[in-house]
């Protein structure tokens, strides 16, 4: 009884104390100078802000814009993943004065379709998607929406070339999440990259049809680990994972193999996943990563808007030519020779000497 | 009014729980360097600021009403239903399946969908009910396991039979004739997500309150919950009552699934065990297992969930802290038993004092 009273008193007093102590930190003079009126908001997709993928990439770009361009930034996390939840958070951002809203992922397509009319004086950037209505009968992007796509095939191509050059011979594998265009393009580009390396640099890499698998989800970590284990057992030395959480499972499998002394590699996706694959000291099983520079895209859109050059209504593609895709600048697992060769190939892709197809053609799956 | 009546006491306990929860949330905000008063102002503004936001708050509350009353009903009859999430999913699956398959006019289709969702949830709760009645398997264990069976059933059924055109993880979008959203209501609330589900939920709560308090059936179910042995002694069919209670509870949660997937949302997604099922337990506890208490508690939680985003947008409170604050409030609500005991001691203290 007495103890309960004591606790309550302490709680009350403590809360009052904290209330009086909590002052807003004053922004520094430097930041104050750079402050501009634009407020940039983001609504996260399923998953956390540090998902090493879409949410994180987008947010890092927005944060950079906050630092360098002085815009006010904010992200909101919806309660669920329904259109109602997404639209509610967009409404919250809008009501709070955030009139430039970035949404990562194709799941926002129907949401933005509605939001572009409902919040006509706000600007929207949707990454990897384009606004359409619920039954896909109408595709429409108003003057306040930019849709951004990435040339995943070029990114997969560069990763394929780099990996083939580094390992020279052996078997590769591919694990995809869902069989959706973005993932398929990674796969097709990867295959073309291996073929290119085999033909032009004399490598002998095999990518067999049995080692190209779409798991079906982006979340089944356990299945990813199993698939990777099967491939490694069949003699595959490196797996390209474009599969979200499934890829995390594959990374885990490769890490435990590496700890046991086997030489097994994973090629990361979307962002530089090197740090994800660290199993000992600085050593990582991530050979390289097929990146989509989501952060660059988000940053550029904000920068352009500040210059008054918001390309509303446009569908933009980020590819090698505008440095929107490619492998990381630093790849500790690639030799200097490989890095310089890859840089030459990248330049060829940029200037169009080498063309990577976004179609399946004669490729596997 | 009798100040010592049970209902009055329950109200006090609920209010104290909410107050303590808010204080704890305030401490959390203060600890992370934010102004709690500002935070709460925006939290409540976010849920109530205009007619659209009020509509959204009620829409968010709708599924909570029904899962809350589901859990409360089971509690009243001596059962602990942790399976409201799974029952919601199955209700949602039945409702979505019919909504996507049959093309009937809205006035005919909607009642069929609602009944199907009740049957779906009811059947899902029948199994734990049977296990409890026949083999005395504890319903807590059985209902939790049924949650995951429902989760994986959805995971298989939706992509296999009702897959969206491009999205593997969601069913197709239901047609307007199967949606609980109606235009006049959406317009009335200025584009909000409020739908017929809200009115259905309120009607159901009134019906349940009447059944529990005014009918022989309600009396029997409560008697079995209160004391199984004495109910048996006085000639009641205990096993039948247990099964029936579970089925009614499941049916209510199933109906909640229909209001969520065909009202608030417009399709069903795989890989998500709806949180409303678990929040329903907190709603029932805070509402002291009283149908009208559950109604009030659900509105309160709906308000928190709905206003959180605006608080995050207006202040520097990160979304994760917003979630934590809500969780803290729910936690205090769920531990209302402690407050009951605390009040007991105070009453005893004063009574003891007077005697001396």
Characterize the structure shown.
The complex is a heterodimer of chains A (365) and B (356). Chain A has 2 domains: 29-150, Response regulator (Rossmann fold); 153-292 and 335-351, Rossmann fold (3-Layer(aba) Sandwich), CATH 3.40.50.2300. Chain A is 44% helix and 19% strand. Chain A has helices at residues 2-21, 29-34, 54-69, 83-95, 109-118, 152-167, 181-201, 221-233, 245-259, 294-306, 336-351, and strands at 39-43, 72-76, 100-104, 123-127, 145-150, 169-176, 204-206, 212-214, 236-242, 265-270, 278-280, 283-284, 286-292, 315-318, 325-326. In chain A, strands 6, 7, 8, 9, 10, 13 and 15 form a 7-stranded mixed sheet that branches. A 6-stranded parallel sheet of chain A has the order 2-1-3-4-5-14, with helices on both faces. In chain A, β1 (39-43), α3 (54-69) and β2 (72-76) form a beta-alpha-beta unit. In chain A, α6 packs antiparallel against α11 and α8 crosses α9. Chain B has 356 residues and is an all-alpha fold. Chain B has a domain at 58-306: ABC transporter involved in vitamin B12 uptake, BtuC (Orthogonal Bundle), CATH 1.10.3470. Chain B has 15 helices and no strands. Chain B has helices at 6-31, 36-48, 51-76, 84-101, 106-135, 139-161, 183-188, 196-214, 216-226, 228-233, 238-264, 276-286, 291-314, 319-334, 336-355. In chain B, α1 (6-31) packs across α15 (336-355), α5 packs antiparallel against α11 and α12 crosses α14 (319-334). The mean pLDDT of chain B is 89. Classes of the chains: A alpha/beta (365), B mainly alpha (356). Chains A and B meet through α1, β2 and α4 of A and α1, α2, α3, α13 and α14 of B.
